[in-house]
Amino acid sequence: MNVLEDSAVTLLGITKCYGRTVAVDDLSLSVRSGELFAFLGPNGAGKTTTIKLITGLLRPDRGDIQVCGHHIGSNGVAAKAKLAYVPDQPFLYEKLTGREFLYFVAELYGIENRRRDEVLEGLIARLAIGDFLDHLTESYSHGMKQKVVLAAALLHDPTVLVIDEPMVGLDPRTIRAVKDLFVEHTQRGRTIFMSTHTLDIAEAVADRIGIIHHGKLIAIGTLSELRALARHEQSLEEIFLQLTEESDG
Question: Which of 94, 136, 143, 211 is the most buried (most CB within 10 A)?
Answer without folding.
Answer: 211
